[in-house]
Amino acid sequence: MKATPPAIALQAVTKRYQNRPVVDNLSLTIAPGETLVLLGTSGCGKTTTLQLMNRLIDADAGTVLINGVDVQQQLPHDLRRHIGYVIQDAGLFPHYSVAQNIAVVPRLLQWDTARITQRTHELLTLLRLPDTILDRLPDALSGGQRQRVGLARALAADPPIILMDEPFGALDPITRDDIRRELKELEVFRQKTVVLVTHDVREAFILGDRIVLMDAGRIVQTGTPDLFRQQPATPFVSRFLKASGEG
Ligand SMILES: Nc1ncnc2c1ncn2[C@@H]1O[C@H](COP(=O)(O)OP(=O)(O)OP(=O)(O)O)[C@@H](O)[C@H]1O
Fold it and tell me: What does DSSP say about strands 35-40 and 193-198: parallel, antiparallel, or unpaired?
């Protein structure tokens, strides 16, 4: 029997801007079903690393594989239909209603209206959203509701991989804590391969099966939250954890 390939693999990947590597010879594998958190200070290359995974940007060197297939052999739009993407403040289309936002990928996949309606209602229930918001524009939602709609949109076609870039960054601390907790408890979230970018150590410890701490485009330490607590690999790691009150 053939072994299952990693859901995502980066092999010696480099991305340069103005001749400066912002992702520097980085290698990383993510198992199916794993929640991996990319953690690090502002500008260390987390977002760039994430965007290499769904071909929002292309690497200058190295290989990115999704389920064992080089992303260069896949069309960006095909790839993105199979990889959900959630960004800060949800990134909803402002002139689309909530219903239209949630239906973006199902429409691309040419689902019929009945199937889209059924899926939309399932997602509203899953994410504890009232169906009274379906006709509203994103502007007429609270930040927490917008973020939930962003999640619903990313989950709509049930992609096996979800990429999340500072998904809770725009929320107040209480709403952020609530949504984090709810997300962690969702069965669907547990089953999926999730890569989450954050600079928030607490968030990384709550949500991550494994954490990758980056600095200047490189990996400083990889491991479970417990490993980070018990064996910070370098003084940089200790300082990073201490600065957030988790060290
Ligand atoms: N399109 C671009 N052109 C030039 N430089 C860029 C571009 N995108 C990112 N950079 C630079 O690459 C570096 C890494 O950026 P990246 O967004 O990946 O960092 P990050 O760790 O996600 O930071 P943050 O937490 O602030 O979002 C930064 O110095 C940034 O200024």
Answer: parallel
Could you give the C-alpha distances from 162 to 36, 54, 153, 196, in angstroms and in order? 11, 10, 11, 8
CB-CB contact of 152 with 124 (8 Å) = yes
- pLDDT given at position 90: 73
Q: What would the pLDDT profile of 45-80 be if each residue is shown by its tens digit?
A: 999 999 999 998 999 999 999 999 999 998 887 887
Q: Which of 234, 231, 163, 150 is nearest to 196 (CA)?
A: 163
Tell me, what's the ipTM? 0.93
Q: pTM, whole model, 2 decimals?
A: 0.91
Ligand 1 mean position, distance from CA 135 (Å)? 35
Q: How do residues 85-95 score in pLDDT, each as one tens digit?
A: 988 877 899 99
The ligand 1 atom at the shortest distance from the C-alpha of residue 197 is 22
Of 57, 19, 31, 4, which Cα lies nearest the Cα of 165?
57
Residue pair 27/12 in contact (Cβ under 8 Å)? The answer is yes
Rounded to an integer, what distance in angstroms lies between the CA atom of residue 106 and that of residue 115?
9
Structure token pair of residue 136? 């509203």
Q: What distance in angstroms lies between residue 236's CA and the mean position of ligand 1's atoms?
A: 20
The CA 164 to ligand 1 mean position distance, Å, reads 16
Q: How far is CA 73 from CA 66, 76, 78, 79, 119, in A?
A: 10, 9, 11, 10, 30
Q: Which residue has the tokens 């990073």?
A: 240
- Atom 20 of ligand 1, nearest CA residue: 43
| 44 Cβ below 6 A of ligand 1 | yes
Q: In whole angstroms, what is the distance from residue 153 CA to residue 103 CA? A: 7
